[in-house]
Amino acid sequence: MSKESRGNENSKNEQLEQFRVKDEGEKLTTNQGLKMAEDEFSLKAGERGPTLMEDFHFREKMTHFDHERIPERAVHARGFAAHGEFEVYQSMKKYTKAGFLQDPSVKTPVFVRFSTVAGSRGSAETVRDARGFATKFYTQEGNYDLVGNNIPVFFIQDAIKFPDLVHAIKPEPHNEMPQAATAHDTFWDFVANNQESAHMVMWAKSDRAIPRSFRMMEGFGVHTFRFVNDKGEAHFVKFHWKPVLGVHSLVWDEAQKIAGKDPDFHRRDLWESIEQGNYPEYELGVQLLKEEDEFKFDFDILDPTKLWPEEDVPVMLIGKMTLNRNVDNVFAETEQAAFHPGHVVPGIDFSNDPLLQGRLFSYTDTQLTRLGGPNFHELPINRPVCPFHNNQRDGFGRQTINRGQVSYHKNSLAANTPAPTPEAEGGYAHYQEKVDGRKVRARSESFKDHFSQATMFWNSMSEPEKQHIIQAFTFELGKVNSKSVRQQVIDMFANVNLELAATVADAIGADAPQGGGSKITKSSPALSQVNTAKKPDTRKVGVIIGHHYEGDDVTSVLDKLKKAGIQPEIISDKLGMIKGSKGKELEVKHTFLTADSVLFDAIYAVGGSGGSKSFEKEAISFIEEAFAHYKPIGATEEAKQWLEASDAIDSPGIVVGKATGEFAKKFVDAVAAHRHWDRQLT
């Protein structure tokens, strides 16, 4: 390097030096240098009251976070979506005046976006993560957005901590690793030092965080909202989406392999299902509480880290959503869709959940950066189906051509129009909740129990599900470099379950917890996937087959599988037509090179001859992996030798025999079970 070059480099370093800041060991301030006495709680009207607009610290912190990344979403960047329709089962007039929940004969258009939370747009879809489940209802009263997740609780209790949470989850800033993963120091350091996250972390380390499909994934509104009827009577409400196919998951090893084999696995599954006419269906459920029952539970119903156990507050199924049309353009629709929990209709209102209160500010602010200005509502995917009129004008991306000279309220030149609509005639009016309290940065004492429901979740799991949680903790903490952070997490989760903490501690070289343990014995069967619907519908079965198979018998079994709603796909060593006896032919959809066992829900080994020398080896490999992932495996007598070579014989979920109707029935039942966890316990 020349002296001149070195001089320029040194000059540049000196120029940059004034911008290099190390925050460690310093006092927290605003961007204006103001030292803050509190960074844990947003400013509220009373400990359980709403967040106040004058909270300049929250607004600065959230505004900066909302604008950190452009134009990709800061969270939920990796998403896929579809159109559909919603029908209510019966009028909900008793509880809400929301128009789309009144008439069972009316079909309301919907748009649903599913997403992972942590990863970038280029990340894989089967990573361990919470999933977004955001639904836009295009109602005649305006757009209503139910913006939820596939987990009913969240990591934090107050929105002011959301930037901190996401900073901890995202790739570490000094090396931009790891992508779409929480198995690293900063996330677990956040967990250990923000113990309100305990319940959400239990869900995130469970099978719920690696769903089999968007179509087999539950959805939750997370927050407590209000239903308000035409008499002004209110009920607290929580929203649920219940998939008709049941709630099913991958296993962790399988999820990791799919991320490499097909990073688009979930969107491909959704796209293909809709294209084939296998429309995903979800029932909308609500949990309702009278206002006078707000304080009857041993948890605060406004705490977003708590759920309402279904055994205590039953879920009422009130309607069904069917996704029946794929998008025409992913960017124009999926990426430009702008959701907001503040997009409501008359009859739906908010509670003082401090996380929800912050979201009501954050989402609009986020769209301003991501979609370039205030007119994101005019993009086709976001436009309501009903007319809209107001005095908002101009701005980036304006599409409306407003006529006339008046653009203000009140006015006389246009007879004071557009004019407000009285509440009695359908105008939106906020529920008149009494608010009384001092302006404080604090949190209600009723929010301070962080472990009871985390323990309830653990108690509700089956033995295989508990083992999966232990394995998830062991994997994630095994990736953490800081021994101190590992130990802090072990000591923290000893408060959830001592056996869980001690088992993980032993596996990661941490000290066994000295205290902890929980006396909570309550469980909620609704939380275990063991108790979900078991259906064979739309399950993909890889059929391994060579030439000269038994034509009539195999064709008969395949027909019976299809009749049961199963989708068999032929795998062999070459593409093209494969010939069986009696002139039967089947088209090969996959070769061993283009497919993999992890991409199927089950394997049906038929046998046959005429393949390459490696045919048998590849077939055995498929079976071994399916067996290791607890999947159903069916085999004809001819293919039985492949199972024997894989040690996959005489185990739960294995069906062997001649290709008959009885064989097909047993195999369909095995496929419907999803996984055969008894193998894990033997």
TrEMBL record:
Keywords annotated in UniProt: Heme, Hydrogen peroxide, Iron, Metal-binding, Oxidoreductase, Peroxidase
Disordered: annotated span: 1-32
Superkingdom, taxonomy of origin: Bacteria
Broad enzyme group: oxidoreductase
GO-annotated biological processes: hydrogen peroxide catabolic process; response to oxidative stress
SUPFAM superfamilies the UniProt entry points to: Class I glutamine amidotransferase-like (SSF52317), Heme-dependent catalase-like (SSF56634)
UniProt xrefs under CDD domains: catalase_clade_2 (cd08155), GATase1_catalase (cd03132)
Pfam families linked: Catalase (PF00199), Catalase-rel (PF06628), Catalase_C (PF18011)
The reaction(s) this protein catalyses: 2 H2O2 = O2 + 2 H2O
Domain Catalase core positions: 29-417
Biased composition (Basic and acidic residues): 1-27
Cross-link (3'-histidyl-3-tyrosine (His-Tyr)): 340-363
Enzyme Commission designation: 1.11.1.6
Sample GO molecular function, one term: heme binding
Residues annotated for heme binding in this entry: 73, 113, 162, 359, 363, 370
Active site: 76, 149
Cofactor: heme
InterPro entries reported in the protein's UniProt record: Catalase, Catalase_AS, Catalase_clade2, Catalase_clade2_helical, Catalase_core, Catalase_haem_BS, Catalase_immune_responsive, Catalase_large_C
Residues in coiled coil: none
Entry's Gene Ontology cellular component terms: cytosol
Keyword Metal-binding: yes
Role played: Decomposes hydrogen peroxide into water and oxygen; serves to protect cells from the toxic effects of hydrogen peroxide.
Family: Belongs to the catalase family. HPII subfamily.
Protein name (database record): Catalase
Gene behind this protein: katE
